[in-house]
Amino acid sequence: MPDFALDVMDAVVESLHDVLDTDGSRSWEHRLEALASRFQAIFPGNDVDQLLEKLARFTESDIKAVIDPYVARFKNGSAKTFLHRLMGSGGYSRLVSGWEADWALCLLALRRLMRAILPLVQALEDAAVPLNDREREGFASSSSANFVLIGMLLKMDSTIESYMERRELSFSELGFPARPDESSALSTGLHDLVDALRMVLDVEAELRASELSDVLVRKLRGFEQALESSEDGIAQAASSLVEFVDRLLRTAFTPEEVLAWVALHYPGDKTLTYRRNGDGELIPTKRAAALCFSHAGQAPNPDSSLNSMLATTLVKVRKDAEQLKHADRGTPEEAEELRMLMKAMRGAVTFVLRANWILSEGQYERLQQRFAKAA
Questions:
Q1: Residue 18, pLDDT score
Q2: What are 349-360's pLDDT values in tens digits?
Q3: Is 181 a domain residue?
Q4: CA 210/CA 372 separation, integer angstroms
Q5: What range defines the domain where residue 360 resides?
Q6: Residue 225's closest CA among 243, 214, 237, 241?
Q7: How far is CA 213 from each of CA 200, 263, 374, rounded to the nearest angstrom?
Q8: SS3 letters for 134-171?
Q9: How many Cα neighbours within 13 Å face the side chain of 170?
Q10: Total structural domains in the chain?
Q11: Quick one: which H or E segment has residue 274?
């Protein structure tokens, strides 16, 4: 192991502590400067750049060649002796004394990350509900086992708690910047947690809609009002859902923009366009518009199956809601199906806006401008 390995580990842990300490007085700029200075001290001069260039050139076989000898030594049952000889007495003592505390800090970071992504995970779970196994395209949840990902996060949270309890460790006693709700595992059950997360998503969906258009807000509110109090509730609620999807896709990109995006990123895909009246004007399909929206108009990643699944959700929600609008038998089952479709649409749109539009520089602001112009 290189002489600087422990110093690098210490720098990583200190930097992680800085990132978690959101209540501190230091700005993000100051924290990033501290991060750079720590590694500059370990790799003075241009060594950092040279090391990064060397790592960037590493192939899978290069990495395997470096790691395999160490793995073989650990497998022979003498890992403790091997580490002692490898690091020396001083380095080994530092590793043993700091390992549990450093690992606990990593677990705190993992817990905070899991708590932060819970609403997005629930959004994905809801978005996948109306799809069949083929349409899910490898997504972890399945129609026969809902809330798989939420359940996994709950189990991971409990595992973190078990680790801390077995070692009689406490984030606060270790001096870590833990928030009050991070000191223990979530005590709520799976279904109560799902209900709470769906309430969060309801609030966020209305917030995002209000940032874009009053019309979208009216469609969301009108949907539930129709189901609760209208004599023609099924047709009106279904119409609100269809119009929400149509207005969102239509305002985000013009047909010409969707056609240009499809020609650039999905050339030759005949399922995304059609000719009006058979041989007339070229028109993008609803799926083409949904794909363009789910990618925020950006180039698809090499593996864009998740965005493709969310586009499928939007198209299927619209199609199923349209069918319910015309069938309209006014049954409780239809109302329940519509609520499921609304949750799926809300989940897909929330995830796409957060993960793609807001994170793409200037795209969300452009979307707001489009809606403002269309008002």
A1: 78
A2: 999 999 999 998
A3: no
A4: 11
A5: 200-374
A6: 237
A7: 20, 30, 9
A8: HHHCCCCCECCECCHHHHHHHHHHHHHHHHHHHCCCCC
A9: 5
A10: 1
A11: strand 273-275
Tell me if 125 sits within 8 A of 147, measured CB to CB: yes
As a whole number, mean pLDDT of residues 361-375 equals 93
Residue 370 within a domain:
yes
Q: How far apart (Å, rounded) are the C-alpha atoms in residues 345 and 313?
A: 7
Choose between 14 and 343: higher pLDDT. Answer: 343
Handedness of CA 222, 227, 233, 236 (dihedral sign): positive
Phi–psi pair at 47, nearest 5 degrees = -60, -35
pTM score of the predicted model: 0.81
Sequence-distant (6+) residues with CB within 8 A of 221 are: 206
Supply 320's token pair.
Answer: 């199923």
What lies within 8 Å, CB to CB, of 53 at 6+ separation is none
Mean pLDDT to the nearest integer, 48-64:
62
* Alpha helices in the chain, H assignment, sequence order: 5-20, 28-42, 47-56, 60-75, 79-128, 133-136, 148-166, 190-212, 214-229, 233-252, 255-265, 286-294, 305-327, 332-352, 363-374
* 318 within domain boundaries: yes
> Could you please report the per-residue DSSP string of 8-55?
HHHHHHHHHHHHH-TTSSS-HHHHHHHHHHHHHHHSTTTHHHHHHHHH
pLDDT in tens, 299-320: 998 888 899 999 999 999 999 9
pLDDT band at 63 (very low <50, low <70, confident <90, very high): low
pLDDT tens readout for residues 178-196: 998 899 999 889 999 999 9
- 16 lies in a domain? no
280: confidence class by pLDDT, cuts 50, 70, 90:
confident
Length of the chain in residues, anyone? 375
